[in-house]
Amino acid sequence: MPKVLIADELSPRALEIFRSRGIEADVNVGLKKPDLLKIIANYDGLAVRSATKADKDVIAAAKSLKVIGRAGIGVDNIDIPAATARGIVVMNTPFGNSITTAEHAIALLFAAARQIGAADASTQAGKTEKNRFMRVELYAKTLGLIGCGNIGALVAERATALKMKVIAYDPFLSADRAVKLGVEKVELDDLLARADIITLHTPLTEKTRNVLSREALAKTKKGVLIVNCARGGLVDEEALYDGLVSGHIGGAGFDVFVKEPAKENVLFSAPNFIATPHLGASTNEAQENVALQVAEQISDFLLTGAVTNALNSPSVTADEAPKLKPFVALAEKLGAFAGQMVDQGLKGIEIAYLGEVSKQNLRPLTAAALAGVLRPALAEINMVSAPSVATARGIAVSENRQEMSPVYDSLMRITIKTDDGERAFAGTIVAGVPRVVEIKGMELDAPFGPAMLYVNNLDKPGFIGALGALLGEAGVNIATFNLGRTASGGDAIALVGVDQVLTADVLSRVQALPHVKEVRTLAF
Questions:
Q1: Residue 231: active-site member
Q2: Active-site residue (options: 231, 375, 413, 435)
Q3: Coil, strand, or helix at residue 458?
Q4: Average pLDDT rounded to a whole number, residues 298-319
Q5: Where are the alpha helices (DSSP H) in 419-478?
Q6: Secondary structure (H, E, C), 305-317
Q7: How far apart are the first and last CA of the chain?
Q8: pLDDT, tens digit (0-9, with 9 covering 90-100), for 198-236
Q9: Which of 23, 104, 1 is nearest to 294 (CA)?
Q10: Is 278 noted as a catalytic residue in this protein?
């Protein structure tokens, strides 16, 4: 039975989901790091919000951990590179609080446009300062979105209902999607020059950090309003303060800051500035949604292998998981075959998918194949860590699809490129079971066994008998025996499934047989 630790406050219904699906779940909230380090090795899954820090020390101590689920979007509290290196899937729930966050952005937009915060304080202080709070209406204004993903699209929808014109800067926004949303896709400089209001809806990366820099803010319209409910660090806070003081920036509403919790900030003393303490996802509905989503996602992964909203692994839907399972097994075993044939200088890996398999979600299959190829040299590796390890080691990886397969419904071929040249291995699925059907261009049909003997030899009379006799004399029982060759008298292969692990002495005796070119033991 998989075991999950709920380390932060989640809806009680999340616990119900885990237990209803046969997963043991413990709720242990507010753990100090030393206490977390003591117990994390007992768990297959970890569910957190933002309080628990899954840093490299915690991940190193998590010997059995397979998945970390974040109930929410931001994963600043999770060391994703460390998790990836250990083969731990990191998931978030990017859609559970989207509506709540979009609504909060609109709320701050109204508050900044009408100076609601300052007007409230003035009124409750017994003042009537109508002239002081003469502000702007939103009707017919141009809203500029920096980032038009899920939350940005929801803001656009609401702004359109307010009869605003919406323009968007997002390198990943397609023209078709822009038309469907009713927004105009523009470049950043165009947005800065045209927008009456700018809202931000993008993750914080090295490319987006200070996307509204001092230089960018100088390009905006005088009186522009700026709203940030996305991430602290997207706007240069010092530059924004100067813009508010000078009057170039007409007002701003921020829910996020570079340093949080934001107990003090240069913007707090700025005129026409309104702040909230990271409330974007803080509604009962949103917290319930993300808790339920993270429980479902972790459960699906631990029970079926489905991967949803992963940040470091290919996604696999619950429907795809059973269909992909035999192909994942084939990819990993075929990759392991190829990996055990590499002695030095692995330069590249090419994976070809032919027939029906080419229509599947290939990312998990490629990840499984890479894990198989690399595992003989790097034992601690799996589908999650393999792609990043290949990249880090400069191994070129390519894949291609061919809808037609000349013999089999589905065929997978892995070609490894080394300092010594290239070798190709192909396999297929027969009755749900992976089989190898081609080695070095030679056709054969063999199952993968736990222990196997690979022999490359010249196709000469008497070889099969000599090999069988040698193994029999050594007390090695043959489980399967499959042959392939180029032509009579040419290159040949024997792939033998055995019930015992072959000793170095037996291998040397096989190598000494006449016409033998290469001998290897294989394990699957």
A1: yes
A2: 231
A3: strand
A4: 84
A5: 463-473
A6: CCECCECCCCCEC
A7: 25
A8: 999 988 878 889 999 999 999 999 999 999 999 999 999
A9: 23
A10: yes
- Token duo for residue 429: 């699925």
> 291, 10 in Cβ contact below 8 A?
yes
Burial class (CB in 10 A: 0-12, 13-18, 19+), 501: exposed
Distances (CA, A) of 173 to 144, 195, 207: 14, 18, 16
Q: In what order do the strands lie in the sheet with 451-458?
A: 478-485, 491-498, 451-458, 516-523
Active-site choice (129, 215, 260, 264): 260
Above 60 in pLDDT, residue 439? yes
Rounded Cα distance between 303 and 384, Å, is 17
Q: How far is residue 77 CA from its own chain's centroid?
A: 16
In this structure, what DSSP letter does residue 485 have?
A: E
Q: Which residue has the tokens 């947005």?
A: 191
CB contact set of 7 (below 8 Å; sequence gap of 6+): 28, 29, 31, 36, 46, 47, 48, 51, 52
Q: Residues 411, 405: contact at Cβ < 8 Å?
A: yes
Q: Which long-range contacts (CB under 8 A, 24 or more apart) does 163-167 make?
A: 163/139, 164/138, 164/139, 164/140, 164/197, 165/140, 165/141, 166/142, 167/142, 167/143, 167/191, 167/194, 167/195
Q: Is the peptide bond before 277 cis (omega within 30 degrees of 0)?
A: no
d(C-alpha 31, C-alpha 52), whole Å: 8
Tokens of 150: 């899920």
49, 158, 201, 278: the catalytic one is 278
List domains and CATH numbers for the chain.
3-93+285-304 (3.40.50.720), 98-275 (3.40.50.720), 314-448 (3.30.1330.90), 449-524 (3.30.70.260)
Q: What is the pLDDT of residues 446-504, one digit of tens each?
A: 999 999 999 999 999 999 999 999 999 999 999 999 999 988 888 999 999 999 889 99
